[in-house]
Amino acid sequence: MLLTRINEKKAELENLKQLRDLSAGLAAQMQTLQEKLSTLSSGTEAVAAVLSNWHTVLQAINMASTKVPKPKTNEGGEATEIVAENTLPQTLVRIPVEREQSSSIPQDGSDQEP
User: What is the pLDDT of residues 60-82, one digit of tens each?
Assistant: First the structure.
């Protein structure tokens, strides 16, 4: 009877060791999953920021397109030729309105005149 009980405890110990090993593997997989989800989350935020700007970009393109000169017609009702560059939308240029403070201030004072 004692021998049977010892064998049962050995089997239980073996099962517990397998459970420990499988739990360690599962914990490692969960850690990897957490890192991938973190990357996915930050990527999703970047995509959301880009998509939120599309409305403004399309509005700017629309505004530039409405400023395109229309072909003029002569007395006969025919459209005269316009130079190709005038038929394109106006060039859009982004001008920064705020300057970064760190770029305008010398770091080590070496730019100061003696």
Answer: 888 777 765 555 665 655 555 55
Name every residue whose Cβ is closer than 8 Å to that of residue 69 and which is 6 or more positions away in sequence.
82, 86, 87
pTM for this prediction: 0.41
Which tokens in the block code for residue 82?
């316009």
According to DSSP, the residues that pair with 73 across neighbouring strands are 79
Q: Residue 31 and residue 35: Cα distance in Å, rounded? A: 6
Distance CA 107, CA 83 (A): 51
Kindly give the residue spans of alpha helices, DSSP state H, lying in 67-112: 101-104
What distance lies between CA 48 and its chain's CA centroid?
7
pLDDT digits (tens, 9 = 90+) for 21-37: 999 999 999 999 999 99
Q: Which of 62, 43, 63 has the alpha carbon at shortest distance from 51?
A: 43
